[in-house]
Specification:
- Strands 1-2 form a two-stranded antiparallel sheet.
- By secondary structure, the chain is mainly alpha-helical.
- α1 crosses α2, α4 packs parallel to α6 and α9 runs antiparallel to α10.
- It is globular.
- It contains 10 helices and 2 strands, in the order αααααααββααα.
- The protein folds into 3 domains: 41 residues, no CATH class; 79 residues, no CATH class; 78 residues, no CATH class.
- The two termini are 23 Å apart.
């Protein structure tokens, strides 16, 4: 076990380097809080914590894919604010829900084209997008407030068997990301791009179970 922890800290295995270290840090913090606070380890509190963290976890998974190929997206927060403002417009849910996905995809496409086709540095491209999107958000929602469709509220505030719905949404996204990165040819390409041709090929081979 000590050797496994050492390997994680040194990033000897790409999968452990990506997932192992954050999980190890979270485990150590959880153990400390369990000792310090008797209410921390209760099922209700843990589910609440996970549910509150899921939006950030889902956003971080998207950022992980970008970082994995050597990029950086500074526009994530502003896109979240923008899509939330759109979702709070006084329109039917059947219009708003598809709209936020399409708009987010369009912004991502603009970032991607600026970086890959026009050779704009990722930081400059996404920082510019961030301010543009924030400006549009201010126009749509000059002050805080608004109400999102009831179906969205139900999807994030309800629970099943005592487990908040956001936990299930987060699990679906995590499993999908795991399958994408470690169970598809596209994931192999991501590892290869991020690590260069030589190191990327070796890393991808290890992730897909190919050893020396």
């Amino acid at each position: 076990m000590v050797r496994s922890v050492f390997n994680i800290l040194n990033g000897r295995n790409t999968r452990q380097g990506l997932w192992g270290l954050p999980l190890l840090v979270a485990l150590l913090i959880s153990l400390w809080l369990t000792v310090e606070t008797t209410q921390f380890a209760t099922a209700e509190n843990l589910f609440n914590l996970v549910a509150q963290a899921m939006p950030l976890i889902i956003a971080a998974i998207g950022q992980l894919v970008v970082v994995l190929i050597g990029g950086l997206d500074l526009s994530v927060g502003s896109v979240i604010s923008f899509t939330t403002a759109v979702l709070a417009l006084d329109q039917p849910a059947i219009v708003l829900i598809p709209a936020v996905f399409v708009l987010a995809a369009v912004i991502g496409l603009i970032n991607g084209l600026a970086i890959t086709r026009f050779n704009v540095h990722p930081i400059i491209a996404t920082l510019s997008t961030q301010y543009i999107v924030l400006g549009i958000t201010r126009i749509l929602r000059p002050v805080s407030g608004g109400t999102v469709p009831e179906i969205v509220i139900d999807a994030v505030s309800g629970s099943f068997l005592g487990i908040p719905y956001p936990v299930f949404w987060g699990i679906v996204v995590i499993l999908a990301a795991w399958k994408l990165l470690y169970g598809s040819r596209y994931g192999l390409h991501l590892f290869a791009i991020g690590g260069g041709i030589a190191s990327g090929a070796e890393s991808a081979a290890r992730n897909f179970g190919v050893s020396d």
